[in-house]
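Researcher: Next entry in the queue.
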Amino acid sequence: MSTHALGADGSTRPAGRLYYGWILVLALGVTEMVSYGTLSYAFPVFIAPMQAELGWSATAITGGFSLALLVAGAAAVPAGRWVDRHGARGLMACGSVVAAAVLLAWSGVEHLWEFYALSAALGVAMAAVLYEPAFALVANWFVRMRGRALTVLTFLGGFASVVFVPLATELVRVHGWRQALVWLAAILAVLTIPPHALLLRRRPEDHGLHPDGAREPSPRAATVRTSSSDLRTLVHDASFPWLAASFGLAALASTSVFVHLLPLLLERGYSPGFAASALGAVGLMALPGRLLFTPLGDRCPRSVVTAALFAAQALGLLALLSGQGPWASWAFVVLFGAGSGAITPARAALVADVYGRERYGSVGGALALVVSIARASAPVGASLVAVAGGYAALLSILVILSIVAAAAVLASARPIPIASTPALS
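Model: Structure for this entry, 425 residues:
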């Protein structure tokens, strides 16, 4: 029985100190906020100034970001396997170095091919530093309190847009877009490389500890799925196709909404200010959504809680479809924002619950690939539907997709064989 806690230097210390898993969660919360803020949310700020100086179209510039997302999805599969075998520390530290180098190189681009090459490299860095490897680490350090840990992590990460969109905007205004990228590269390097390299630890058992800081190992930590996490095997697994369908459809719906909400509200006669406020409020509602729903999964069946998130998405879309007044728009903001905002931590917790800690990285990476493909295809697919049938047709289809996603995640929870084997050898 361990009576020690882990110190930041890797040593064990007498019990009674803060469980080191919470230090990891707080550190990752900060690094995820910075990584998402600099690598993802700040991107739109650079479109207009790059257009003005380089003469590239907005389509060409956003195409680079789409490429980064696709590469990130593909790279998530080998990244997940790496995390399962070696832990997240080296991957995330190296990923932060690459990410900072890409931002620095981006500040000097002159040709479109250079920008696209850097976008591909950015996708590799994103797979190494964004949520998937962080979730794998949390899944190893927490079992009984996994929902709470994911709530803290994603709540802190949820401030990425709130902090970095205005920061990047001000940097571009004061220094120009090239120098702004240099500043962002420096911020990312200082705030993410040291924590990733110095603080991250693979699993508590390596230091004589148990998940959650418990005195005895949790029964939930001692059972894992016996099936392989190879992609070809996962396709025939009892749960994975349902999980892939549910989270892929949900990502398709949420991305389509974020791309088309602004023009939809403008078409209905709302002012640009109201439309922009509604879009921003959807993102802000993700924070209370995570605070409410993610810990709930520790007390109720996780698949039922996740299905409720998809149902909230569907209800929000129905409000937007059937109502015309401001009340309909704000009902949509509350329901859709809270539901969609809690889906990412729900996916992480559900994968850990179903597949255990040992294979989390591989399964999570495979699901991340599915979600990335859905997000990349959503803007074009939604635009085609909107052009052919209008926004009413688009909203109707998105309601159906959200309902099907809820049914699929419930289907993924059917009983499956497990073996009582040590989760970690």
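Model: Confidence is low (pLDDT under 50) at residues 7-14, 222-229, 415-425.
Researcher: Noted, moving on.
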